[in-house]
What we know:
Elements: H1 11-17, E1 21-23, H2 30-34, E2 47-50, H3 54-67, E3 70-74, E4 89-93, E5 100-103, E6 108-112, H4 117-125, E7 129-130, H5 141-146, H6 154-157, E8 164-170, E9 176-180, H7 185-191, E10 200-207, E11 209-210, E12 213-222, H8 226-237, E13 244-252, E14 267-275, H9 279-290, E15 297-298, E16 301-304, E17 321-328, H10 333-343, E18 353-358, E19 380-387, H11 391-407, H12 433-446
Parallel strand pairs: 2-4, 3-4
Antiparallel strand pairs: 1-2, 5-6, 6-10, 7-11, 8-9, 8-10, 12-14, 12-15, 12-16, 13-14, 13-18, 17-19, 18-19
Helix pairs in contact: 8-10
This protein binds flavin-adenine dinucleotide (FAD).
The site of flavin-adenine dinucleotide (FAD) has 33 residues, from strand 3, helix 5 and strand 10.
Amino acid sequence: MSISPAEAPDLEALGAAIRGDVIAPGDPGYDAARQAWNLIADQHPAFVVQAESTDDVAAVVRFAREHGLRVAPQATGHGAASMGDLGGTILLRTSRMTAVSIDPGTRIAHVQSGTPWNAVVPAAAEHGLAALHGFSGTVGVAGYTLAGGLGWLARWKGLASNHVVALEVVTADGDVLRVDADHEPDLFWALRGGGGDHAIVTALELELVELTTVYAGALLWPIEQASAVAHAWLQWTRTVPETLTSDIKLVRLPPLPQIPEPLRGRSLVMIGLAFAGDAAQGEALVAPLRAVAEPYLDMVGELPAAALAAIAGDPVDPGPARGDGILLSDLDAAGIDAFVDVAGPDADTPLLQLELRHLGGALDVSSPDHGALDTVDAGFVLYGVGMAMSPQMDAAVETSLAHALERMAPWSADRTLLSFAEGQPGMRRSFPPAVADRLVALKRRYDPENRIVANHVSD
Ligand SMILES: Cc1cc2nc3c(=O)[nH]c(=O)nc-3n(C[C@H](O)[C@H](O)[C@H](O)COP(=O)(O)OP(=O)(O)OC[C@H]3O[C@@H](n4cnc5c(N)ncnc54)[C@H](O)[C@@H]3O)c2cc1C
């Protein structure tokens, strides 16, 4: 599964054959075109193509085949930290392919593969519909959904990948196909949760849910309250309905001007939550959390469902972030103590935040209609991240992440999720062995020359 380099490619010919742009090293726009949202990914591809259409993508794949090159599709670069070396690889940016249309009758969104969630959410909201997006609206629909996609409605509706109706793809041969349950069902299965390793997706058809308002937002306390709040949160997660998804974060916000004043430079414990139900019921559900201690900030209330793409307070602008995560099978009081030890008030840590996300509910429900990521057999996700503004800071964050994952290992599910396992290359730890074997076999069938480069490798 290797590609032998051939003669120097004629980039002018490729440029003339497509609507988009070809940007080579030395061209004025090369540095901007190769830059990912996550700035720790210093990508040096053979050249970059800014594709504008499915035909462009197919032309690029055929060109790559003729010239012994590989192709790495990328929308935003949120997942670029785990990309390998891009030597001999075309970086195929899809970020100009952002057409979105909503069919209110079938409740299906048709989305081109370079679209960020922020473009889908308001379009769906116009029809009283909501998408199964994640915590940040700036994340791309394609990378998020192909890797599973765990959002604020996850305990109610499950993974985003299991709500894909059909995909338009360009295969490693350069053919354009529509894949769904009846057409190329194996490829359809692999792409729904297996990452983007088996074909290049040019458009997605996604089921939406009817939802106009939620009871949602964030509660924040000084980090000194971390232990009391986190213990109470764990007990509370045992009681909440599937229509409520929540997380808890221990955060250390830097004193940066773009962070609003009440949060700037502060260390806090923060619970984020989304309840897909009415406000009175939501208020009753949240009452035990408010009773733990007077919150420093209480931003939970009735919101339009479209606001869910912003309530986590994730950074919007590109930055150098080093993160990693694992699944936890379950947690007990000792697990919460370990979590607070690692990033609570007494910890000396460079981590910007350490998060626990509550799973279960619909994520536990298996179906023969699901894709490669059928269920998430775990109680919680643990994910930590720090800013790596310099090599020294990067090394300190990496050490701290390794410490956090090791400290929480007694509760580990020995499995992780592709989207959260940035420091763990390969995909074997994200799937049961039989699923991983099937993904590898399908990679050999659909991409025998290993033409397509994903941020996680089917090995
Ligand atoms: C701030 C932030 C918040 C996040 N929140 C969540 C969350 O709440 N829930 C969650 O599940 N994940 C979350 N993630 C993880 C995120 O889902 C992954 O990083 C995802 O890969 C990002 O997709 P992207 O398209 O934006 O990134 P990109 O880096 O552009 O793409 C990532 C990978 O997806 C594949 N890919 C992208 N486009 C295509 C395509 N057209 N065809 C085939 N493969 C393709 C490629 O393998 C690519 O390397 C978050 C990440 C960040 C940085």
